[in-house]
Amino acid sequence: MTDKPQNAPLAGRHIAVLLGGPSSERKVSLVSGSACADALERLGAKVSRIDPGKDVAQVLTATKPDLVFNALHGEWGEDGCVQGVLETLKLPYTHSGVLPSALAMDKAKAKAVLAAAGVIVPGGGLYNRHDVARDHVLPPPYVVKPNAEGSSVGVFLVFEGANRPPEELASPAWTYGEEVMVEPYIRGLELAVAVMGEPNGPRALAVTDIRASTGFYDYEAKYSEGGSIHVLPAPIPDGVRDRAMRMAELAHSALGCQGVTRSDLRYDDINDILVLLEVNTQPGMTPTSLAPEQAAHVGIPFDQLVLWIVEDVHARRNAGGTA
């Protein structure tokens, strides 16, 4: 328990933090959740840290929090499932609701919604993993990724000249679903934009240029110390920066997201092509995470970001919104 400052803004509030969980992103969620729980305690709240299992509804009913801070990542915690449990329990909770969470987690459905809203997304489509493992379904280079996972889990980059697709896709140990998304590889820069869903409309914070030490922004590059370098602000033309920020705001709105999101984009600086890859409805809140870095860059320290996320829930409820 950290010391509580005088006149703490969350004094008297009881907040349950969901962290860990059963997904492939459990380790990241434990770090995100611990950082947020520590911040909530510094802000004066009473915090109950809950690593949810099958009995999460009973645990939350017994805990009786005023609000649930959802720091889960990946399947079940970020795809609308735990959001449905919280809706059933009538507990206010952070981040996006059931439908936006489910939509954003399903890459194929999210791409359809985003394209209809005017967001530029990559081509490609859904394929059975065994078909993709058998032969190239797109000419290399292309990217293969699970349709409903985050944090670049289970992602393969097939380079030009590759003789065979990734054999791992046909392995009995594959646990990421039978359908995989296959998209043309967009060369260039890996960009990220965090968005805060404010009452007057989504507000993009900044654009980060992510430079992975491994050459590909995979799970290790995202969360390992030294795995990537975040260049903030991204050294890109002002026009490209503005396009990236507007695209992230449009994506946030098109999916119906709430709270803080992070959009991942690719920018081909030779051909001036900017595409949005996906929207993360519960971006990481670890020491190396992009959203807290961007918030700090625009003058919002970590604790204030966590406070805003909590206060945003009450602002939406008072305005008649969900959660």
UniProtKB/TrEMBL annotation:
It comes from the Bacteria. Its EC number is 6.3.2.4. Residues 111-311 form the ATP-grasp domain. Pfam families: Dala_Dala_lig_C, Dala_Dala_lig_N. It is found in: Cytoplasm. Its cofactor is Mn(2+); Mg(2+). The keyword Hydrolase does not apply. It catalyses: 2 D-alanine + ATP = D-alanyl-D-alanine + ADP + phosphate + H(+). It is an enzyme of class 6 (ligase). SUPFAM superfamilies: Glutathione synthetase ATP-binding domain-like (SSF56059), PreATP-grasp domain (SSF52440). One of its GO terms (molecular function) is ligase activity. Keywords: ATP-binding, Cell shape, Cell wall biogenesis/degradation, Cytoplasm, Ligase, Nucleotide-binding, Peptidoglycan synthesis. Pathway: Cell wall biogenesis; peptidoglycan biosynthesis. Cell wall formation. Belongs to the D-alanine--D-alanine ligase family. This is D-alanine--D-alanine ligase. It comes from Caulobacter segnis. The lineage of its organism: Bacteria, Pseudomonadati, Pseudomonadota, Alphaproteobacteria, Caulobacterales.
